[in-house]
Amino acid sequence: MLVRSIKLAALAMSLLVSAKVLAHEFGSPQDAVNSYISAVKTGSGEHIKMAFLPSASIQYYDKNGKYQNYTRDDFAKLVDTGNKWNATIEITDLKTTGNAANATVEFSWGDEGKQGYVDYLNLINHDGSWHITDKVAQYVER
Is 75:58 a contact under the CB 8 Å cutoff? Predict the structure, then answer.
């Protein structure tokens, strides 16, 4: 009985440690947005999962004018290529009010940076950490 109790306690402790390792805390909205930027620049689905809440919605219009709609996990799979993307990506606006924030992120690539996306990200400070709650975006030609 004592051995079983010790094994259960060890299992519970390892689960708690695993949950803490998987939890990603961002001290500012910019930190969460930078995780998203790292994700798309490096093709890392894990960074998407770190930056976005599990309930996040990702919606955008692509280069062909087609509406795209993803869950966080499906978007993470889409991004998870491992390919580095040679694009200029920058936060062009960031507004914070208490525990809510909104960021505009602009992407540009191609000849003279004429192709791009403009992303609008909403963020919330949830359980002491900032995360993206949703993304809407539009492909643009400059």
Answer: yes
87 alpha carbon, distance to own chain's centre: 17
Indicate the number of domains in the chain. Answer: 1
Report if residue 101 sits inside a domain.
Answer: yes
**91 DSSP β-pair partners:** 105
Residue 79 lies in a domain: yes
CB 60 within 8 A of CB 68: yes
Assess if residue 18 is contained within a domain.
no
Q: What is the pLDDT of residues 47-104, one digit of tens each?
A: 999 999 999 999 999 999 999 999 999 999 999 999 999 999 999 999 999 999 999 9
Please state, in angstroms and rounded to a whole number, the distance separating the CA atoms of residues 132 and 55: 10
Residue 80 lies in a domain: yes
In the sheet that holds 88-97, the strands lie side by side as 67-71, 52-61, 129-141, 115-126, 100-109, 88-97
Percentage helix, strand, coil, to 5, in the chain?
Answer: 35, 40, 20
